[in-house]
Automatic annotation (TrEMBL):
InterPro entries: GerAC_N, Spore_GerAC-like, Spore_GerAC-like_C, Spore_GerAC_C_sf. One of its GO terms (biological process) is spore germination. GO terms for cellular component: membrane. Its main location: membrane. Residues 24-194 form the Spore germination protein N-terminal domain. Residues 224-385 form the Spore germination GerAC-like C-terminal domain. It is found in: Membrane. Gene3D superfamilies: Nutrient germinant receptor protein C, domain 1, Nutrient germinant receptor protein C, domain 3. The keyword Membrane applies. This is Spore germination protein KC. Keywords: Germination, Lipoprotein, Membrane, Palmitate, Signal.
Length: 394
């Protein structure tokens, strides 16, 4: 009995050792792309691969070269451009470890369905990478900027997106299947977060950008890009992006500053619950959007008796009216300027009132533009901090 168990253990050890060696051999035989950028160059695609330099990022002695390199190729299709990369690199480039896909703005405005088709159809492309748009620029430029603190730029973009979504309401993260679902939906339009190169772009593409205490160029997470189908049609500002993420239930924690009686008070949002209710208003759909906020006072810049219950009550009412107005304006702008239902109102109508949806779905663009939306906001201040009143200088 014991001999049998021992033999099985030996077989398992041999099998897993073999698998481990195979994985190591696979890594050594191929390059790994950590970031990919797609731009349109006239009638051709320009694809940029950010490839890990295995010698520089391994635990071995450093070679003095950069931790990643970028390689570009053109083609009549994305797959052809990807294959043309083999003319410039010595090994096949794999994409299972892809962290970010950057789409150039001009490419995004023409339509991104070709990129989606390539990455959905490709068996090697996993679903955990983020997709962004190079706002006001090209994907190629974004992937060429040297970044301090994190040696691999694509990894920096990936982590910045996650951190921003966790603590900053205007930013959000979108993966390929979420984007595919929205592109193919008749009742909801997609969004993508913008990514920008700020500062001296030419310097950012050299080692000089990481050799000084102050960056001359840096990559910054931007606001939300609005899509109509698979085409980028415009950009929201910070407030509009924050409202959009609130409606989509994507806000986890953030800081919002409100000018109360002429002085800024910072409110840290700890909980934000939102709900969309559809009502039948004389045979037509009407949206009631509810937003419930619980927050803590994070900063007070003037001598306001913030511990006074009456002051807190007035501040809560002020914030409720402020957010209500901002939300109404943001929704109205998307309706009138873009005619793109990025909020998923049509999706909620189809779920809650299928018969109403049947009446409006064939002409949803126009129906969405004039859809009545009522906003109801409730705010509760949970904590005012560890000091009673603002610091006084006597």
């Amino acid at each position: 009995m014991y001999k049998k168990i021992f033999c099985i253990m030996l077989i398992n050890i041999f099998f897993f050792s073999l698998m481990g060696c195979w994985g190591k051999r696979e890594i050594n035989e191929n390059f790994q792309a950590i970031g990919i950028g797609i731009d349109k160059k006239e009638d051709h695609y320009l694809i940029t691969y950010q490839i890990i330099n295995p010698e520089e990022v391994s635990g071995k002695e450093k070679t003095g070269t950069t931790p990643v390199i970028t390689v570009e190729a053109e083609g009549a299709s994305i797959s052809e451009a990807s294959r043309r990369l083999t003319l410039k690199v010595s090994k096949k480039v794999n994409i299972p470890h892809l962290r970010v896909l950057v789409l150039g703005e001009s490419f995004a405005r023409e339509g991104i369905k070709d990129a989606l088709d390539f990455f959905i159809r490709n068996r090697d492309a996993r679903s955990n990478f983020y997709i962004v748009v190079a706002k006001g620029g090209t994907a190629s430029d974004v992937l060429k900027v040297f970044t301090p603190l994190q040696k691999i730029p694509a990894e920096k973009i990936h982590d910045s997106l996650e951190t921003a979504q966790e603590f900053w309401s205007p930013a959000t993260t979108i993966r390929k299947y979420e984007l595919l679902s929205d592109v193919g939906a008749e009742a909801k339009d997609p969004i993508l977060t913008g990514i920008l190169v700020k500062g001296k772009k030419d310097v950012g593409m050299t080692r000089r950008n990481v050799e000084t205490i102050e960056q001359e160029a840096y990559i910054e997470v931007g606001t939300i890009g609005v899509f109509k189908g698979d085409k980028l049609v415009g950009w929201l500002d910070e407030n509009e992006s924050s409202i959009t993420n609130s409606i989509l239930r994507k806000v986890k924690n953030t800081i919002r500053v409100y000018s109360y009686v002429g002085y800024p008070i910072s409110l840290e949002i700890q909980k934000l619950r939102s709900k969309i209710k559809v009502v039948n208003d004389k045979g037509k759909p009407k949206i009631i959007y509810y937003e419930d906020i619980v927050g803590d006072i994070a900063e007070v810049t003037d001598d306001i008796k913030i511990k006074d219950p009456q002051v807190i009550k007035k501040f809560e009412k002020y914030v409720e009216e402020f957010i209500k107005l901002r939300a109404e304006n943001a929704i109205k702008r998307v309706q009138q300027d873009f005619h793109a239902d990025i909020f998923g109102f049509g999706l909620e109508i189809s779920r809650q009132h299928p018969k109403l949806w049947e009446k409006v779905k064939d002409n949803w663009d126009k129906e969405f533009a004039k859809l009545p939306v009522e906003v109801i906001v409730t705010v509760r201040v949970n904590d005012t901090g560890v000091i009673i009143d603002p610091i006084e200088i006597k």
